[in-house]
Amino acid sequence: MNSPRIQPAVMVLEDGTVFEGRAWGAPGTAFGEAVFATGMTGYQETLTDPSYAGQIVIQTAPHIGNTGVNTEDMESRRIWVNGFVVRDPARRPSSWRSERTLDEELAAQGVTGIRGVDTRALTRHLRDRGAMRAGIFAGDDAARPVPELVRRVTEQPAMAGQALAAQVSTNEPYTVEPAEHGWDGPVKHTVVAVDLGVKAMTPQRLAERGMRVHVVPADTTFEQIRQLRPDGVFYSNGPGDPATADEQVATLREVLDARIPFFGICFGNQLLGRALGFGTYKLTFGHRGINQPVKDLATGTVEITSQNHGFAVDAPVGETVIAPEQRYGRVSVSHVGLNDDVVEGLRCEDIPAFSVQYHPEAAAGPHDSAYLFDRFTDMMDRAGQDRGPEAGDN
Amino acid sequence: MPRRQDLNSVLVIGSGPIVIGQAAEFDYSGTQALRVLKDEGLRVILVNSNPATIMTDPEFADATYVEPITPETVEKIIAKERPDAVLPTLGGQTALNTALALDANGALERYGVELIGADVAAINLGEDREAFKGVVERCGAESARSVIVHSMDEALAAAEQLGYPMVVRPSFTMGGLGSGLAYNETDLHRIAGAGIQYSPTSEVLLEESILGWKEYELEMMRDAKDNVVVVCSIENVDPVGVHTGDSVTVAPALTLTDREYQRMRDIAIAVIREVGVDTGGCNIQFAVEPATGRIVVIEMNPRVSRSSALASKATGFPIAKIATKLSLGYTLDEIPNDITRKTPASFEPTLDYVVVKVPRFAFEKFPAADPTLTTTMKSVGEAMAIGRNFTEALQKAMRSLEQKGSAFSFARPAVEPGPNTVARLVEKCRETTTERLRNVQRALLAGATVEQVFEATAIDPWFLDQIQLLNETAELIREDPDLHPETLREAKRHGFSDAQIGELVHLDESVVRGVRHALDIRPVYKTVDTCAAEFEAFTPYHYSSYDRESEVAPHEKPSVLILGSGPNRIGQGIEFDYSCVHTSMVLREAGYETVMLNCNPETVSTDYDISTRLYFEPLTFEDVMEVVAAERRTGGLLGVFVQLGGQTPLKLAADLKAAGVPILGTSPEAIDLAEDRGEFARVLTEAGLRQPKNGTAHDFAQASRIAHEIGYPVLVRPSYVLGGRGMEIVYDEASLKTYLENATEVSPSRPALIDKFLEDAIEIDVDALFDGKDCYVGGIMEHIEEAGIHSGDSACVLPPITLAPDVVERVRAATEAIARGVGVKGLINLQFALASDVLYVIEANPRASRTVPFVSKATGVQLAKAAALIGVGRTVAELRAHGVLPAHHDGTTLPEGTPTAVKEVVLPFARFRTPEGTVVDSLLGPEMRSTGEVMGVDKYFDTAFAKAQAAAGGPLPTSGSLFVSVANKDKRSAVIPVKMFADLGFEIVSTGGTAQVLHRNGIESTVVAKIADAEGDEPTVADLITDGKIDLIFNTPSGGQAARGDGYQIRAAATSVGVPTMTTVSELGAALQAITAQRQYSWSVTSLQEHEQTLRERAAQEARGA
């Protein structure tokens, strides 16, 4: 039985561990940081989430591809993961919305995968030793000596210190109109969303609430932002190490200095943290799943959140402090992750700015945190009232 | 917020006897609840009439009432115990309904008792169909569209809107009378036309049909701070049309995109909030139209349900435990996740495996019943399996059913199937029977396409493709008779057993295993951890998979492996799980590490913190041996207990021993000896004991000769069967011939056993312990019905009420002699019959029996625990010295004044219909058909019997009318009890011959026509019963066929309206005693703790007096 479908493949970790499997998706070799994602639904959203750029994603759910691929559920224009590791890919998708199979999609987009891997063993390994560099070698490469493969893995750059946001960001600005997403009233506010790896659902969530959203590239300057006369500025999620995003942090400080309402998610949360003068650090193996409990410290309620982050903000939990950049006044940690007490949100008390580390736009994931978009809207409403009727009237 | 400080005592209501649809899972949830409440330092009061439950073990509550779960009795308990609160959401619909009744009648208010975990308004909103539709609409979601019509014109107009097929449901008719599915206008005219007539309000509900839609269920939890989580999503492989309890189901849902799943989650959360579910668990069911994705909400259960148990086992998230904590005021984020220890319960479990549940049916017990699966649940148990993919989990689940043919067979038909065969096989898939999944696999194997089968079944193509994958894998195996490692690995990855592989390559299972072991292709054991390995797990809850890494940790001490009893079935239910759990509990206390192996998700034994380690695995020789190997690798395995889980593990005993596995307790040789007629007869002869005359026949001629020799009536049965399967009492040669012609289980290699049937004998059941030297008789139970009715179906009483002291002594001596002769080390169950003062031995089972929990509760001695300790080397003398067994007395010498305990059974007849739609016959016989049991305890037999009847769901009337129709053989003995009923003021209603006999004895009765003789519109007895004009029925069957028709219709009518029916004279006598007592006083309630106190005091008095 040497059918072309059954080609060996191996997943090699930088610590020398090797997992056998079978080639899947596009033939060839893939390198990246090995991370695991625990969502049982939403593989298509995961693949197209720009925050996964540079990573090899391991799906802990064994059956992947059951509902095929459709255009509607794409979170961006392409697949961003460097490699994809699953146990049992679907042979045949079944969904009334399916347009093509996942195998076809991976092959078409040149994404190398590996199937038949003991993904649980791999996940446990990464959990105990932390996320690390890895490579998928399919076909003839799979038979090369392990030390050679390990060497090729370790030749790759580590995730810490990588600036990836600019790579995944849109090249040209574009606008998402409220009317495109079911809002039939007048436009309420204009938001400039800086694309650091934004997912399609995020501008949609804003547009549904009456916001016109100008999505701009990651290197957009404050001056360019101001020319769009925003009522609010939004920083999206995105891949890479926040410590590399000095340019975006500088721009954000200008936004904060101008007292323009600000909302950031994920990478945007890390950049708000850095703008306020806090540090960021790399988590051992990150949070990637759609079942992560987060407590809103103001209300005491728990939301089940969608998360995808390998870095976090280092800020004190449980007390309101003056930001290290003192001109921004008092700051509190607004949300914490209940699994490990990681900072999951920041709230400025003296300037109109807040952010969360997780994904209120979900996709994939629960919609428990959608209220945060309302909070942003309210913030812009209040700022508009403060500024008087002439502002924000477009 | 932390726990409420204003609650000091809580009354938990259990779910009562095991019935179809409400089974062992409520013992599992109730036991968790009790443990939580006790840990929190509350005074815990429990009411549950089911003695076979772990929750009714006295150590789990401060006051345990094994009393009927009726509003009146529960009110008495409230009056006596004065709890602060009642927790009614963990005992199924029984508990919820009882609580609602207590709320409605003001009892809760009178005693100042609060309902916790439930809100009456919310329950009503959740359960009232129309109100619930409003809820769904307010949440922006949809229910199935429906229209109420009052005329055919309106119906036709509605049809335009709803489209065919459509469900037609007349309003306010009993038991769905007149409902049907209209596929076209002709059907609509017929069904709705009649429906408008049937309905007292001339009203018919027309509803769009969602048959064939995808069906899902979400298990939810909500806390007092309005935090809501989805614990588990469950997808039915069988689309809408088959009850979820009868469907093959899978967790998590496998064929939804995230958008659809989140939409369902949003709706579920909105509905919970709109309904106002208080704290705790609930579930919501959805249907999804496959072609459009339209979502319709089917219903919700505002309580812990059957599927909550499944969801708990499937995810490792203990719903009942957490629900109980929430009812005390905790919030989800304050409760730690037991498995990870450091993360909170306020999260949604994520699975890195697939769970499949398959139902187990018992249609073979009800040959007349229509085996079509509908929206009425008919399965009696279930098996669950966990695998790293769907195929592995499905195949494990199917072999866990332990029924012949339950696993897929991939053998090719002898002839290549032609197009007609394929078409016929596809057609067969349309029938929603227990065979459907196997029919699907056969059709695909024969060459049908996934599309064809989808069209016929509406089973999602993804699942069908997985079954196709199994067929393809089978082909791979078939083509590689040398079994190369890649082939074996691939086969094992998809759950093929060694036996299935062997069938494909014409090798014995053991040869396949030999090859596999030589190639070192062995399963690994993964852990259920709620979090897909994101966090370390501290609970060794394992399942096997053919994958790379095993997670079984080394043992610190030798382990004892306990084999459970597998899926519940008639004849082997919760009672056996009880013994397994007790064994695990007592051996853990004694310092052993215990390892449970079972595949039944409903049970307490598969709760992950009952044993040191849990393997959720099928109970086949292959699967057990792999666990044994895993245990040995990790330094465990002192030995295996096979005598506790009923026949399932027992039948593995010899093979395990042959494979070198140490068996604890009674040896496999002793087990065989008791099963072997010749050997057993020798033991009896040596002990000077008698058996009814008997013989073994391979054909009719032989059978006829034996029957003549020993004399009719005879009891015939196939050899090697359980629960009286296929057993019948035969009165003449013609019936013997019919029996043998129809008995599919009799063949030259499997002969029929023929015993002299002892008419009018008193049947006696004994449970005893033996350690090789001393015997401890746990209890002697006297059956209320005469011999001939399966012991599992007959009511019994302990201590025996009519056995003379010398008979009890003979029973004791016989028990000891047999236990010694067989070589028992642990429990033995014996059945005797006393006829004309001669004691006959009917059978001996050297294992834990169905009655162990009843005896334990009635006598206050935990027999299963004692048996487990004997299994690891303790002696009866030691157990007596250490207080595990009473120091001085045993079950034959219970102290004077010991209260009387009655066991009564519940039967599932009302669930089953013949294909023509009538109820199946409820006549009891030598084949067991009950699903569960209750216990009634009181000072004397009369009230204990009355309690047992009330608990079993048929409270006895204290006045009204008694219908009497008895067989000739019973006419004489019926006179006196019937006379006494007449004297009590009962109206006696009778027919023909019975009426004459009564009249001659001075008992006047209202005579009604026999069904066969009724003329014109003359009402028959069946009509009177259906109209509710009869309060009690006394109908004994005659052996002949003629009266059978009448008797059947009487019993059928009684079953459908639920009138208590006595089918033996002795039962009527018991009823008479009970009714007389009830007319004199209202019973009081006694807790098991008080009962045990009484027993201890009486024993101490006697010891002092002695």
TrEMBL record, chain A:
Q: Where is the Carbamoyl-phosphate synthase small subunit N-terminal domain?
A: 7-137
* Region entry CPSase, spans: 1-186
Q: Which UniProt keywords apply?
A: Amino-acid biosynthesis, Arginine biosynthesis, ATP-binding, Glutamine amidotransferase, Ligase, Nucleotide-binding, Pyrimidine biosynthesis
One Gene Ontology BP term is: 'de novo' pyrimidine nucleobase biosynthetic process
Q: Reaction(s) catalyzed by this protein?
A: L-glutamine + H2O = L-glutamate + NH4(+); hydrogencarbonate + L-glutamine + 2 ATP + H2O = carbamoyl phosphate + L-glutamate + 2 ADP + phosphate + 2 H(+)
Q: Which CDD domains match?
A: GATase1_CPSase
Q: Which GO terms describe its molecular function?
A: ATP binding; carbamoyl-phosphate synthase (glutamine-hydrolyzing) activity; glutaminase activity
**Active site residues of this protein:** C266 (nucleophile), H359, E361
Q: Which organism is it from?
A: Kocuria tytonis
The UniProt annotation places L-glutamine binding at: S51, G238, G240, F267, Q270, N308, G310, F311
| Superkingdom field | Bacteria
Q: What does this protein do?
A: Small subunit of the glutamine-dependent carbamoyl phosphate synthetase (CPSase). CPSase catalyzes the formation of carbamoyl phosphate from the ammonia moiety of glutamine, carbonate, and phosphate donated by ATP, constituting the first step of 2 biosynthetic pathways, one leading to arginine and/or urea and the other to pyrimidine nucleotides. The small subunit (glutamine amidotransferase) binds and cleaves glutamine to supply the large subunit with the substrate ammonia.
Cross-referenced Pfam families, in alphabetical order? CPSase_sm_chain, GATase
Q: What is its EC number?
A: 6.3.5.5
Which SUPFAM superfamilies did the record assign?
Carbamoyl phosphate synthetase, small subunit N-terminal domain (SSF52021), Class I glutamine amidotransferase-like (SSF52317)
Protein name as annotated: Carbamoyl phosphate synthase small chain
What quaternary structure, including any partners, is listed in this protein's UniProt entry? Composed of two chains; the small (or glutamine) chain promotes the hydrolysis of glutamine to ammonia, which is used by the large (or ammonia) chain to synthesize carbamoyl phosphate. Tetramer of heterodimers (alpha,beta)4.
Query: Pathway, per Swiss-Prot/TrEMBL?
Result: Amino-acid biosynthesis; L-arginine biosynthesis; carbamoyl phosphate from bicarbonate: step 1/1; Pyrimidine metabolism; UMP biosynthesis via de novo pathway; (S)-dihydroorotate from bicarbonate: step 1/3
**Protein family (similarity comment):** Belongs to the CarA family.
UniProtKB/TrEMBL annotation, chain B:
EC number(s) reported in the record = 6.3.4.16, 6.3.5.5
| Species whose genome carries this gene | Kocuria tytonis
Tell me the ranges covered by the MGS-like domain, including all copies: 954-1106
Q: Return the GO cellular component terms, semicolon-separated.
A: cytoplasm
The cofactor required is: Mg(2+); Mn(2+)
Residue numbers spanned by region Allosteric domain: 954-1106
Give me the residues that bind Mn(2+) 2, please: E299, N301
Q: Where does Mg(2+) 1 bind?
A: Q285, E299
**Segment Carboxyphosphate synthetic domain: which positions?**
1-402
Q: What is this protein called?
A: Carbamoyl phosphate synthase large chain
Q: Where does Mg(2+) 3 bind?
A: Q831, E843
Positions bound to ATP 2: R717, K756, L758, E763, G788, I789, H790, S791, Q831, E843
The answer on whether this UniProt entry bears the keyword Manganese reads yes
Which of this chain's residues are annotated to bind Mn(2+) 1? Q285, E299
Q: Which family does it belong to?
A: Belongs to the CarB family.
* Domain of life of the source: Bacteria
- Key words, A-Z: Amino-acid biosynthesis, Arginine biosynthesis, ATP-binding, Ligase, Magnesium, Manganese, Metal-binding, Nucleotide-binding, Pyrimidine biosynthesis, Repeat
Gene3D superfamilies cross-referenced by the UniProt entry: 3.40.50.20, ATP-grasp fold, A domain, ATP-grasp fold, B domain, Carbamoyl-phosphate synthetase, large subunit oligomerisation domain, Methylglyoxal synthase-like domain
- Matching InterPro entries, A to Z? ATP-grasp, ATP_grasp_subdomain_1, CarbamoylP_synth_lsu_oligo_sf, CPAse_ATP-bd, CPSase_dom, CPSase_lsu, CPSase_lsu_oligo, CPSase_preATP-grasp
Record region (Oligomerization domain):
403-552
Q: Name one Pfam family in it.
A: CPSase_L_D1
